[in-house]
Structures are given as C-alpha cells and as structure tokens.
Amino acid sequence: MTVRSSLNFRVTIGFFAIAIPLIFMLIYNNYYASNTVREQVAESNKNTMILYSNQIQAELNRETQYLYNLASEDPNVMQLSRATYDPDEYVFAKIRVMKAMERYLRFDSIVDFQFVYAVRNNALINTAIPADTYEKLTTVQTTIERFLREVKPGSLYFNEWRTIRYGDEYALLRLVDTGDGYYMGASVSLRNLMIPLDLMNMGEEGFTAFLSSEGKALAGSADRVLPEEKFRFAEGETFSRIRHEGSRFIVVSNPVQGTDTTLSAFIPEEQALHKLSYFQLIIYTIPALAAIVLIFYLIYLNDLVLKPMRVLLGGMRRIKNGDWQYRLAPSKTKEFTMINETFNAMASEIHRLKINVYEQEIQVHKAELKHLQLQMNPHFLLNAINIVYNLAQVKKFEIIQLMCQNLVKYFRFATQTHRAAVTIRDEMEHIESYINIQQLRFPERITYRIHIADELGAACIPPLLLQPFVENCIKYGFDFMDHPFHIDIRIEHADASGQMRIEIADNGIGFSEEMLVELHNGRYFDAYNGEHLGIWNVFHRLNIVFGREARALFSNRPDSGACVAIYMPVRTMEQYG
C-alpha cells in the first residue's frame, strides 16, 4: 500500500484542497480590487491630463495662428523688408512690430516672449524676456540667437512647437517663415505651463511632468527634483506601473498634440491604495484564521479518527508478520472500541487455525510445477542426441564440437530445476543456444531475430517457458523452402496494466485449420495424449503460476507462418518467491 492511498494522506490533501483555493481566491480578490482602484485613479487623472493637454494645445494653436496672421497681414512686418535701405523707416517699423507683439502678449497670450528675426543681418527683435536674474536673461537671449543662426528652413520648428533648452530649463519654441527673409517666433516655458497642475493633489511623492519623446522629464511640479532616468510606458494601456526611487507609481500620460512632449502624472501607488488598507488587512487575515481553524480541526480529526486507524493498521501488520500475541487496546470512541474487540477476536481465531489448508495447497502446487518443469529436459535430450548421432555419421567433427558447446550451455541452464524463475535475458540466451544447434544442423537455412524492450530484460518468467514453441517452429514449420526459415521473437509491454506480450512467429507452413480450431476452443489442452508435450506443458505451467492473468493466442500470419502470442504479468524474481 502506497502513502498516497492512506487515509492520513487523503485527509491532508483534502485540507489543502480547501485551503489553497480559498487563499488564491482571496489573493485574487485583493489583486482585482487593487487593480480596480488603480484603473479608477488612472482614469480620473487621465481625464485631467487630456483636459489640460487640450487646453495647452488650443492656446498654442491660437498663438501659432497669431504668428501667421502677423506675418501675412500686419503692414509693419511687411514694411520691415521694404525699409531695409531706409534706416529711419526700418527703426519705426521695428518699434511698431514690437508694440503690436507686446500688446497681444499682455492681454491674449500664454507665451513668455515673441520675436522677429532678420535672416540677412542676423538681427533679433523680441519682446521683454521674463527672467529672475540677468544671467538667466543672457542665457535665454544667447541661446535663441545661436539657434536662429543655425536653424534651417526645413526644420521641424516651422511645423510644430518643439522643445528648446535654456540652461537648466526647457521651453517650447515655434517659428513661422514670412517668406521675406524674416522669421516670426514665440517661446513658452514648460515650467509656466505646469503652474495650473501644481494645484493637483499628488501627495508628497507624486508629481506631474512634461516628458520628451524619448521619455526624459523636462519640467515638473513646483519644488520637484526631476529624475534623470528615461521612462518607458506600455503602449495602448490606460496606465502604467513603474518603480522609481524605491516607490511604485501609477503613471497616466497624454501627448500634447502639435508638440513633441507628453504630459504625465505620477501618482504614488501607496497613496492611491490607502483606502484599501483595511480591506487588504481583512483579506489577509481571513485566510490566516481559516488556516488556523482548519489546522485545529485536522489535529482533532487526527486524534479522533486517523490515530485509531493507524493503530488498527499497525496491528494488522504485526499479525501479518506473525505476531499472533498482539492485541489492540480500547479506543476513545465506541465505534473504534467495537472494531478493536472484533479484530482481537479474529486474531485469536486465525492463531488457532494456522491457515493449514492454504499452506498444503501451496506445497501441492509447487510439487506439480516442478514435475512439469522436469518433463521438458528428457524430451529435448533425445532430439539433441539424435542430431549429434547424425552429424557423427557424416563426420562433421567441427560442427559436433560447436554443437556440444551449445548443448553444454543448454543443459546447464535446463538442469537448474531448483529455480522457480529466470530473467528474460537468460531465457533468450538459452533459446539462442538451441537455435545455434539447429543452425549447425542446417547451415544457412535458419535465421532468427530477438527484440526485447530495454526495461523488460530484467523481468522474470518460469524457466523453459518459450523454448518448446521455438522447437515446434523448427519441427513443424521448417520445410526446406526456397528462402531461409526465419524465427522472430519480440518481447514488449502489452498495455498500461502491467502485462507484457511475448510473440514467437516464423515464416513456415503455419498451423493447420483443424489445429487452430482445437487451440482456440481449448480442447487441445483438455486431454494429454503424449503428443505436442511442449505446448501442453507450457499451457499448464502458465495456468498454475498465473491463473487467469496469463493467456496464449495462436494464429497464422497473413503471408505465411505461425504466430504465438503469450500475455502474462511483468514480475520480478522476488514475486515468484
């Protein structure tokens, strides 16, 4: 009996079968609830990001439209290109353009400053640049002048708002080509665009930021030190989860159309799931309490049922091993006390009987099996002596020597009558000795092939079980055909029930129809008349050793020859006793 079939094992498995799905269900509920809260938080902040992104986009589009209108409709801008050779008129035109841009900037614009750049003489006309320090003002002005000198007409800055770096800060810049050698442009600081988002409650660690197309943080909430790392988010998802500086964040992003930036909100996951803390505590507590209750119940069940069962099984084993004096003590429960008393009474009765009848039957079967095994040796000995005699008449002394060597091997194996079983590998070596004898008698007229499944070579069968069939193949199937007589022996697993199939086939004349009928209906084995001793012997030995677990099937092959298939259990030497 294996451990898996024990009651203790099955009760333990039942315990885990209940506890594990419960724990997994609660863990899944926790995951589902947490993910639902994440989605809701992400959806809420996503809407805010979309709303503000659209607002920024609308403002930038309005600024872009103003630049186009200024470049194409304002007479002062047109006058700049015409007054190139009139210094006084050129100065007045610049002043009028400056006034127009400052008036628009003061009341209707979100940008920090606007400018007009003359490509021919690298002259820059700009509105006041907001700066806290003179150093910052110089940095912005130097950067914009250097950029305008290097920018090409086909640059993306003429198509959309794109980022530009002024020292440590980033801004969005847009250019419009007037077509007369002048560039109109505007610049807006990303930090200024973040000011309305500073009012969002992101917690102590949360923040909002503009990200570049490569995922680098360009500008963020007030007093927030932006990370140097580049962020990568899953595409097509409502939100992403990232780990930054030891904390997990829920990130929602939305690209600002018409720019090369993305507006992102980084919400601390701990803050988002804060309201779930009590729910999570309950979820984690319930499995722990359930596990404790089930463990106590398992201990109680073990003391009430499993322990008495183990005591009962232990008593059965001791009785089985011959300890007839062993008796069971009363149990805690009435039912097991009655079982133990009945067990003690049965043990006493079996002790008195000593199962004498069973022992006598075993002795009778062993004697009969030995008698059947001994019948095999004289039968083949007569045939072998006759073969040696015939070879001596034709003075085939070398063949006689080889044959005697094979006969010695054969009879050394056959005379070991004390063995109840032999391995299939030894039995096949014995059969090869027999076939070698026949090959010496009929050179180049007999061939054979033996195939044994690897794991069956060490399996055991009764000795001299297969040799009679091989002998009958040569005796009745061999008829000096035009081609060599071939014997094929295959030993392999029959199915998953622990049986093996031994097939012995030849290409001879096969069984007659009358013989097949007698073999199939069993009349052939009912009466013993001295003929075909080998097959009759094998059939009765199989019946004594295996009973109904073994059977033999007889047939003719489709082309030619006989086929015998024996099905029997796979056993080891210990199982034969």
UniProtKB/TrEMBL annotation:
Where, per UniProt, does this protein localize?
Cell membrane
Any stretches that span the bilayer, and where are they?
A: 7-28, 278-300
Which organism is this protein's natural source?
A: Paenibacillus methanolicus
InterPro entries linked to this entry: Bact_2-comp_sensor_kinase, HAMP_dom, HATPase_C_sf, HATPase_dom, Sig_transdc_His_kin_internal
Q: Membrane: is it a keyword of this entry?
A: yes
**PANTHER family per record:** SENSOR HISTIDINE KINASE YPDA
At the top level, the lineage of the source is Bacteria
Q: What taxonomic lineage is listed for the species of origin? A: Bacteria, Bacillati, Bacillota, Bacilli, Bacillales
Q: Which SMART domains match?
A: HAMP (SM00304)
Membrane topology classification: Multi-pass membrane protein
Q: Which UniProt keywords apply?
A: Cell membrane, Kinase, Membrane, Phosphoprotein, Transferase, Transmembrane, Transmembrane helix
For this record, the Gene Ontology CC terms, alphabetical, are: plasma membrane
**Which Pfam families does this UniProt record tie to the protein?**
HAMP (PF00672), HATPase_c (PF02518), His_kinase (PF06580)
> Single GO molecular-function term?
phosphorelay sensor kinase activity
> What is the protein name for this chain?
Two-component system sensor histidine kinase YesM
Residue ranges annotated for the HAMP domain, each copy included? 303-355
| Gene3D superfamilies, sorted | 6.10.340.10, Histidine kinase-like ATPase, C-terminal domain (3.30.565.10)
Its predominant location is membrane
